Amino acid sequence: MSTTTTPFAEVAASTSTLRAFLHGLPGVDRVGADARAAMLGTRSIKTTAKRQAIDLAIRMVDLTTLEGADTVGKVRAMCAKAIHPDPTDPSVPAVAAVCVYPDLVATAVQALKGSGVKVASVATAFPSGRSSLEVKVADTELAVAAGASEIDMVIDRGAFLSGDYLTVYEQIAAVKGACGSAHLKVILETGELATYDNVRRASWLAMIAGADFIKTSTGKVSPAATLPVTLVMLEAVRDFLRTAGRKVGVKPAGGIRTTKDAIKYLVLVNETAGPDWLDPDWFRLGASSLLNDLLMQRQKMASGRYAGPDYFTLD
Amino acid sequence: MSERLAVRKTYKLFIGGAFPRSESGRSYVVNSSKGEFLANASKASRKDARDAVTAARKAFPGWSAATAYNRGQILYRVAEMLEGRRAQFVAELVDADGVGVRKAGELVDAAVDRLVWYAGWSDKIGAIRGSANPVAGPYFNLSSTEPTGVVAVVAPGEGPLLGLISVIAPVIVTGNTCVVVASERAPLPSVTLAEVLATSDLPGGVVNILTGSAAEIAPWLAGHMDVNAIDLTGAGAELAVTCEELAAENLKRVLRPPTAKIDWLADPGTDRMTAFLETKTVWHPIGT
Amino acid sequence: MFEYAPAPESRDIVDIRPSYGLFINGEWVDPLGEGRDKTVNPASEEVLAEVAVAGEADVDRAVQAARKAFAVWSAMPGSERAKYIFRIARIIQERARELAVLESLDNGKPIRESRDVDLPLVAAHFFYYAGWADKLSYAGFGPSPQPLGVAGQVIPWNFPLLMLAWKIAPALACGNTVVLKPAETTPLTALAFAEICRQADLPPGVVNIVTGAGETGAALVAHPDVDKVAFTGSTEVGRLIARSVAGSRKKLTLELGGKAANIVFEDAALDQAVEGIVNGIFFNQGHVCCAGSRLLVQESVAEELLDALKRRLSTLRLGDPLDKNTDIGAINSAAQLAKIRELSEAGEAEGAERWSPACPIPDKGFWFPPTIFTGVAQSHRIAREEIFGPVLSVLTFRTPAEAVEKANNTPYGLSAGVWTEKGSLMLWMASRLRAGVVWSNTFNKFDPTSPFGGYKESGYGREGGRHGLEAYLAV
């Protein structure tokens, strides 16, 4: 376990101390947060800034496939795309990671060997999180043993919404323990938490319990990532760094499909947590179809022509 | 046996719920409409006006924060007290205005009824003057009325009781407090009205009544920086212009004198209330 | 690390004439006198156009035209008047982008604000009052409320087209005709509006635009054939106008200065409160009569809030008003800049501590960085006088009662802000603040349906909503 949880040992002593702490955080006014996110969404990112943003966004992508129909072949193809998103243009950077189910981790690890692209695996009875702690820990251990360097766990939303913060805390801490040296991304599933107050509390709960990243969504629940939810989470990591001295990353996931959307997230990061977070180590975009749009926009900027989807691979 | 010698009343000012003489020690002769001596009334000075404003300001927080129901009840109580002194007011009006007993009775009745009418407005004016505004966004947006503050009132020269009630009641029913310059010619009913007010649960200072020269006192009130509004109903044309100019100094709300003679027996409408109401609009986001 | 490249809105969309006459009786006419003035782009000091200065005789021509048109306009069925005003609203929407650029050029405000705030509100205001024109008998002013006649309207430079809309839309809906004088530093959108009136086939004389400075405004206000005077601007000028109409029986509404308290309690949603403070005082460079220029923060959270506020201020982008990413544009004029500087220097001299983020200032034009003063006492000039610039004075309080006392301790009473998550406290505060608009957990929000106007020396009368009709009806 990391030592960074120590300052919060007293907070995590019981559900009531956790409750006192989490409910003592400043509230979030939904309308105000929405308005701030919408205003940042009007930033106009053009020319050199857009070029820079597109490459940064590509480097932040967690290229994801989380389907029941996933196969070894599908994952291998996706890994190839992760390393060389545009085979015709070697200047396109690789993505940050691929994200798969635990049973396909080994396939991804093998396919990405030496590329620098990381392998992330969802775990802990993804996406519902409805299983025993033993199973969740075992799920995590399997993925880590198979070579995953990042674990995307889901929190127990039922426990959170019923106010049983200690259970949520203990599960995150246990999974963090099972991660070993792998990074832990904690999925809050903000679409089920419903309020921004809950998003802020869940963010802090996850960070106190040892999360290396906090992530919006599984992608299986609507709404998935939104700008205001990500805003609230960015405010949480910003404040956590000041309070606890530890930097935590943020990953919006689900529903980010266009370059325009991705750039809005980068603006949000830049003007909320600050430019220190504008790095794949601290910000990721969980997505699948986004990558091709980024590539099309990138090509348009290089060629001056609008690009067509037939010229980009569908993997 | 000789007839018993009557005990006369000393007519004084009404400030902060008390009945002081003018600090200046001045008085002036009030005659009946037939020119017979009635009494010496206090002749208020600018310092009396100043003291009255202080009293009105002091009374404002409590009176404006009282529930509308409570203010309505108190105005109704004033009507009850007035009704009880009907005979006295009839006699005073006969003296002051030279009207017959029958006409004087009608005027006192109308004054009582007017108070009852205004009493009922206390908890209704907000409903017809306020609004829930359908703004284009996720906001609750409500406009409501609030009293303007301390209002100076130059009461009409005509209608020493009905006219007076008709300018005081609309000002105070909504939560304002006031300093009234009574009819210079016929001030005595105003002092008797003050006695009614003093015994009607009306907090001291809500209504302050000065007798004397409007031309002398009104400009001091119009220029007073702690007066929020002025009703110039009883000011003559020249005095009204002077007062309106002075009122500009702190942007007082000004109710100008009427262009035609007012029929005090007619339906007064809501204008005298709305002239001394502010509209406050409160916004609040709507969200989870 | 992530530098936003310049993203300027194209100014080619706007066609500015080298010189403008007066718009009287539906025609462009030359002023009778020799007076000409120049309007400049405050971000570059470039002259945008030469503008006529209307003298007394010109004002008289305009008032006569309006008087003549009043017979036609007031007799027209409300439903027909409504259609003209709807038409104007639509043309504004169609030309919104052009008008936004023109507004930013002449005023210096960021295009993001003229595009996303001013222009949408302008169109909405005309659309809203258009709908009233044939419903006046239901407005609560009697069965057949009548217009007043000719309205003389004088507007400020901070929201040139929006203030025009606030004045002209209700006046026309009620059946009045108008002579409007825009501010001398920002006449161009009003002159563009004259063209819109022509495109809408508005009968000649219903809207007349006379340009000029204070003397033109004084002539308009004093004109004996004006029935109604509406003014938005400083309390100082408002006083002069109130004095000048005394005895005339002209109906008068005034929307004047302010020194609003923005009150933050310890339980506030802090991140949104910070946004509200920023929006409260740095929106439109603080050139806002209802700006939240006094921050009253509960002592228990003062340090945390100020840290967050300063951090947030460091992200504000000052510069080219036409750049779509600009947050803080240019100060409208050299004179206004001098006033802001003078008061800021007074703040320092009186012992308050001044802070601004590192903020490059362009070489040309009129600029002032976002500025915070801490350690401000109620007695300091910067806590009492309207600065009308991007300057925030920070004071602290301990209890709700103290917050109310400090907030109300001013001759002004236009607006106030309250930030708390506790509903009962919010309503307690809202009921005690002597201000015409109270924004709770938000700030600087406007809507045509929502009455706006002040208490005390912030003026009288309301603009917006059903209440806004009263200023233009004989009631």
Automatic annotation (TrEMBL), chain A:
<protein>
    <recommendedName>
        <fullName>Deoxyribose-phosphate aldolase</fullName>
        <ecNumber>4.1.2.4</ecNumber>
    </recommendedName>
</protein>
<dbReference type="GO" id="GO:0004139">
    <property type="term" value="F:deoxyribose-phosphate aldolase activity"/>
</dbReference>
<dbReference type="GO" id="GO:0005737">
    <property type="term" value="C:cytoplasm"/>
</dbReference>
<dbReference type="GO" id="GO:0016052">
    <property type="term" value="P:carbohydrate catabolic process"/>
</dbReference>
<dbReference type="Pfam" id="PF01791">
    <property type="entry name" value="DeoC"/>
</dbReference>
<dbReference type="InterPro" id="IPR013785">
    <property type="entry name" value="Aldolase_TIM"/>
</dbReference>
<keyword id="KW-0456">Lyase</keyword>
<comment type="similarity">
    <text>Belongs to the DeoC/FbaB aldolase family. DeoC type 2 subfamily.</text>
</comment>
<dbReference type="GO" id="GO:0009264">
    <property type="term" value="P:deoxyribonucleotide catabolic process"/>
</dbReference>
<dbReference type="InterPro" id="IPR002915">
    <property type="entry name" value="DeoC/FbaB/LacD_aldolase"/>
</dbReference>
<dbReference type="InterPro" id="IPR011343">
    <property type="entry name" value="DeoC"/>
</dbReference>
<comment type="pathway">
    <text>Carbohydrate degradation; 2-deoxy-D-ribose 1-phosphate degradation; D-glyceraldehyde 3-phosphate and acetaldehyde from 2-deoxy-alpha-D-ribose 1-phosphate: step 2/2.</text>
</comment>
<keyword id="KW-0704">Schiff base</keyword>
UniProtKB/TrEMBL annotation, chain B:
<dbReference type="InterPro" id="IPR016162">
    <property type="entry name" value="Ald_DH_N"/>
</dbReference>
<feature type="domain" description="Aldehyde dehydrogenase">
    <location>
        <begin position="23"/>
        <end position="255"/>
    </location>
</feature>
<dbReference type="InterPro" id="IPR015590">
    <property type="entry name" value="Aldehyde_DH_dom"/>
</dbReference>
<dbReference type="InterPro" id="IPR016161">
    <property type="entry name" value="Ald_DH/histidinol_DH"/>
</dbReference>
<dbReference type="GO" id="GO:0016491">
    <property type="term" value="F:oxidoreductase activity"/>
</dbReference>
<protein>
    <submittedName>
        <fullName>Aldehyde dehydrogenase</fullName>
    </submittedName>
</protein>
<dbReference type="Pfam" id="PF00171">
    <property type="entry name" value="Aldedh"/>
</dbReference>
<keyword id="KW-0560">Oxidoreductase</keyword>
TrEMBL record, chain C:
<protein>
    <submittedName>
        <fullName>Aldehyde dehydrogenase</fullName>
    </submittedName>
</protein>
<feature type="domain" description="Aldehyde dehydrogenase">
    <location>
        <begin position="35"/>
        <end position="474"/>
    </location>
</feature>
<dbReference type="InterPro" id="IPR016161">
    <property type="entry name" value="Ald_DH/histidinol_DH"/>
</dbReference>
<dbReference type="GO" id="GO:0016620">
    <property type="term" value="F:oxidoreductase activity, acting on the aldehyde or oxo group of donors, NAD or NADP as acceptor"/>
</dbReference>
<dbReference type="InterPro" id="IPR029510">
    <property type="entry name" value="Ald_DH_CS_GLU"/>
</dbReference>
<keyword id="KW-0560">Oxidoreductase</keyword>
<feature type="active site">
    <location>
        <position position="255"/>
    </location>
</feature>
<dbReference type="InterPro" id="IPR016162">
    <property type="entry name" value="Ald_DH_N"/>
</dbReference>
<dbReference type="InterPro" id="IPR016163">
    <property type="entry name" value="Ald_DH_C"/>
</dbReference>
<comment type="similarity">
    <text>Belongs to the aldehyde dehydrogenase family.</text>
</comment>
<dbReference type="Pfam" id="PF00171">
    <property type="entry name" value="Aldedh"/>
</dbReference>
<dbReference type="InterPro" id="IPR015590">
    <property type="entry name" value="Aldehyde_DH_dom"/>
</dbReference>
